[in-house]
Amino acid sequence: MPDFFKHDSVVPLWLAPMEDITDPPFRRICRELGADVVVTEFISSEGLIRDVAGSLKKMDFSEQERPVGIQIFGNNPGSMVDAARVAESANPDFIDLNFGCPVKKIVAKGGGAALLQDLPLMLQITSAVVKSVKTPVTVKTRLGWDERSRPIVDLALKLQDAGIAALTIHGRTRAQMYGGKADWTLIGEVKNHRDIRIPVIGNGDVTDGPSAKAMIHSTGVDAVMIGRAATGNPWVFSEIKHFLLTGEEMPPPSCSERLRVCRRHLSDSVEWKGERVAILEMRRHYSHYFKGLPDFKPFKMKLLTSVLLQEIRDTLSGVEEYYCP
Q1: Which stretches within 99-176 are classed as H helix?
Q2: In whole angstroms, what is the distance from residue 319 CA to residue 325 CA?
Q3: Which end of the chain is more exposed for a tag (fewer CB within 10 A), N or C?
């Protein structure tokens, strides 16, 4: 079992890989606020082996982010092997194979959750990648393609036989996308199967301490992965840990704390990816950073429509003056 699964009293919490969200600035913030393991945005295998600048840049991480995994996706065994070797050269703690992304543009190219329709190919890719690198290889996938096809229990055993070090299961099918309710039942069946020896990470509908405790209690997972609930809310990790340790909910962050972290996130993003891209991608976070503030809509609209960095900073100063004098 990898070292990052070992714990004393709290099940490890993982930050899920999310496109345009889990970049280095946000990963560092989440690590500081309680995330135990982080994963990069998903990276195209074809982009890596063709030296596409954007794909290579997504592999970058700092030492303070460790343990960190690099996630790759694709549907060609040769390309995935070559991409895994490129990823290994960056010296991550593990390489994660994305067999679960439901987004149309990824599935249309045969990547992500599309492999749930071709399990022999998924297993072929997994086995080939495991044999080609010394770095631990993990897999993230879903229950299945749709309600008529949810082969995750048998699939987990075969992925284990292919040599993976751990398995993350999102409790939805591809057909569900991110809608409906995650079904943790099959996650529990995998974890508690008599022949499963690898760690199992549960993912789906964990948004706070009570839901994390419920998943752990009902499934026995070795770790919990948090995705959308962390967007603009990196405190979710410390809040969950506090609840698991004490049974009490932690008070929400103050307005001043929200502003401090949001400003840092913005500044680090601009430094990392440039002003134009940072302004666009930070829009995913603002509503969550300031969720619950009364009459926030005018400030929200400015943050979501401003195209100049100084305008955004001025709006954040307005938030400070109005909500936390």
Answers
A1: 104-107, 119-132, 152-161
A2: 9
A3: C
State the pLDDT at residue 4. Answer: 63
Rg (CA), the chain: 20
Q: Which of 30, 101, 255, 324 is catalytic?
A: 101
Assign 189 a pLDDT band (cuts: 50, 70, 90): very high
d(CA 313, CA 211): 35
Contact indicator for 58, 24 with CB cutoff of 8 Å? no
What the block records as the tokens of 239 is 């809040």
- Residue pair 7/45 in contact (Cβ under 8 Å)? The answer is no
Q: What does the alpha-carbon distance between residue 227 and residue 249 come to, in Å, rounded to a whole number? A: 20
Could you tell me which residues come within 8 angstroms of residue 199 by beta carbon, excluding any fewer than 6 positions away? Answer: 1, 2, 5, 165, 166, 167, 222, 223
Contact criterion met (CB below 8 Å) for 202 and 172: no
Measured distance CA(237)–CA(184) in Å, rounded: 20
Q: Spell out the CATH class of 255-323.
A: mainly alpha
Give 271's contacts (C-beta < 8 A, 6+ positions apart): 25
Q: For 49-95, how does the pLDDT look when each residue is reduced to its tens digit (9 = 90+)?
A: 888 888 888 999 999 999 999 999 999 999 999 999 999 999 999 99
Place of tokens 């900073």: 313
pTM: 0.93
Q: Give CA–CA dist 291/297, Å, rounded.
A: 10
* Amino acid in the structure at residue 85: R
Domains of the chain by residue range:
3-246, 255-323
Residue 101 known to be catalytic: yes
DSSP string, 20-89: TTSSHHHHHHHHHTT-SEEEPPPEEHHHHHTT-HHHHHTT---GGG-SEEEEEE-S-HHHHHHHHHHHHH
